[in-house]
Design brief:
Blueprint lengths: L1 H22 L3 H6 L7 H6 L5
Length: about 50
């Protein structure tokens, strides 16, 4: 159970780190990698199938 909690906390941190990094990109930079602002939460969560 403790390991499960640790994994959840790590996943939460990873999500927010990814979200912050992607949010810092300009619209042009996002477009260059095939994304727009609406895609950021899915990509940060690792659930993007674009």
């Amino acid at each position: 159970m403790l390991m499960s909690l640790i994994r959840m906390i790590q996943a939460f941190r990873d999500y927010h780190r990814n979200l912050n990094e992607l949010s810092r990109l300009t619209d042009r930079e996002l477009a260059d990698i095939g994304l727009d602002r609406a895609d950021i939460p899915r990509v940060a969560a690792g659930a993007y199938n674009g």
